[in-house]
Amino acid sequence: MAESWIEQGESPYPYEREALAWVRSWFPDHEPWRAFARFTFPGADGRDHEIDLLVAGPTGCFLIEFKGHEGCITGDARDLVSTSNGRRNAFEHPKRLLKSKVDKLVEALRESKAYRARGGRPPFIEPLVFMHHAEKLEVSAGGASGVLLRDRDGVIGLRGTLLERRAPWMHGIEIGERRVDKPAAKQLTNAMKEIAYFGPRPPLVAGSWQLASAPLEESAAWSDFEATHKLTKEQRTVRVYIAPRDRELDRARLANAAKLEFEALRTFDHPGVLRAYDLDECDLGFVIAFEHTKSFVRLDHFM
Hints:
This protein is of the alpha+beta class. Helices cover 27% and strands 33% of the residues. It has helices at residues 14-26, 94-110, 113-116, 141-144, 158-164, 182-195, 248-265, 299-302, and strands spanning 5-6, 34-42, 48-57, 60-67, 71-75, 79-84, 87-92, 125-131, 134-139, 147-148, 197-198, 204-206, 209-211, 217-218, 222-229, 235-242, 276-281, 285-290. A hairpin with a 2-residue loop joins strand 3 (48-57) and strand 4 (60-67). The mean pLDDT is 88.
């Protein structure tokens, strides 16, 4: 399966390793199927984007985000809620950010030598969210589109969707640009080997802060991380407004956004609101260091 499934190293997260192993156990080991697992690619926006799984084959091409939420998933196209053992966790619908990643990946593929030199265009990529440890999905019609569980009796999950396009909200494969044949799979593989970095990412550093390998929350402008100060070893939750130095207009806009947020919060003292301690500039962009807690909830989700 070396050419059909491309992955280097193992995920540091047990739930993600188990979910990937489940997909790999039934994934086709023949042409034109391809799976690219756990890779990072640089976007035109200057940010590095992490991807859990990209799959291509006769049924189409899919960018898949893995989410480990448990229990019952409810909500709509904007926000979702997982409820398990009486605990409720609200979070932004992952598909909203995933659509942006799809656009950035298509752009990066289009600019690769594999497509520019040989012609053609990248395949049409559909975003999917795989709730691999959830038991039930009770989401509005608009929010359920693109969200999948594991396959079981009465449930069409990720396997039935990837191999047979059986999800009720999917369009038929008669749309030509969705199909990936052997030549298209080879061209995609060459482009991915050119633009993507596979395996564990190098440690992320933002100024004086060593960041955790995966963000707690993400938006189009910022990412929140658990972080450790390189010298004092104190723990903080940091928000990084990612704006590389070579993108002056974006950097100026995000500098203003980070400053406004910091100024609004640094003198705000309430036991229910994370306190902002510091604002710093670094190569990645701008960093706000907050009080650290594993149980924080975004205000819009709390309400």
